Amino acid sequence: MTTALILIVLxxxxxxxxxxxxxxxxxxxxxxxxxxxxxxxxKNQGYLMxxxxxxxxxxxxxxxxxxxxxxxxxxxxxxGGEYDYLMLVSFIIIFIVQTITxxxxxxxxxxxxxxxxxxxxxxxxxxxxxxxxxxxPVIVLAGLILWGLYTWTNIMDVNDEDDPLIVELYAQQxxxxxxxxxxxxxxxxxxxxxxxxxxxxxxxLDESDTYASDDVIVKELHLPVGRKVNFKMRSQDVLHSxxxxxxxxxxxxxxxxxxxxxFTPIKTTAEIRQDPDVVDKVKRTNAIRxxxxxxxxxxxxxxxxxxxxxxxxxxxxxxxxxQMKIIVETQEEYDTWMKTQQTFGQTMAGNETEPAFNPVLxxxxx
Length: 366
Description:
Elements: H1 2-27, H2 39-67, H3 80-111, H4 127-155, E1 165-172, E2 175-180, E3 216-218, E4 221-224, E5 229-235, E6 240-244, E7 249-253, E8 259-263, H5 269-272, H6 276-294, E9 307-311, E10 323-329, H7 331-339, H8 344-353, E11 357-358, E12 362-363
Parallel strand pairs: 1-5, 4-10
Antiparallel strand pairs: 1-2, 2-3, 5-8, 6-7, 6-9, 9-10, 11-12
Helix pairs in contact: 2-3, 3-4
């Protein structure tokens, strides 16, 4: 409500200023009413173009200085470095081209401003100029596209080499569930038509499939550092997108089909928390939260940096809150954690005699 009132006030102030300007113009008896720009108008417009050029360069420098601290830290996956380098090169090229073209545009707007008696020189065509401004972008863009395709092909080479860990990411409005292949590292068959909430079969696993019995279903994703992970992704309802920004990984989760993505984590959660940029980010964030806590405001508890899985498709009213914590740890820590988890077979067996703990919904599905 406050935001709406502020916008209304700003609009009314703008209208008032505009009306006062019109009144001032009408009060000038000697003011020219011609709608045709004269030499003075053209000169002023040239100066304004220069002023705008300074403004856009100034706001660019300010943005780099002010907001660079909000960027993600270095990639925590093996492929992330190449991904970031490709993006950096693309940004540098765009920035250089933008700087040159904007400078020329605003300079020429001033240099070749209208003046009484001057007549513009008109070229019907110029093959040499057209060739230059066509072939240079073609070469640059073709190079970026080929480099991008090569990088993307490498990233999307999902295979079973190097003994990858097999993990399923299951998306539904508005939460994530992870499933591990268990001791045999093979995911059992599953289908949304087999979902049985009463029996705690929340992912629709095929109970007759022997590979499904040792699968482990969890609500917190644990990954061993240095080991390749092949993700299989499903969606129960609408289009979601599994987005893990720290690992430079994203893949759509499509109802009715299984999509794949693969990466190797190279930094544990403990290691990324020691990154100087991350330490600074946590310090700044908790300073703000401390101020909010002093005022008794909500969401003011101290924050700890974590890897996170997000949904990057607007999938409904609670899309913003669809996330899962990711913990990257040593192989030993991962093995210890995995031993504490209940398998799907154990969950089903326990459900036959007593209320079983449902890792997604809790006891008795409540």
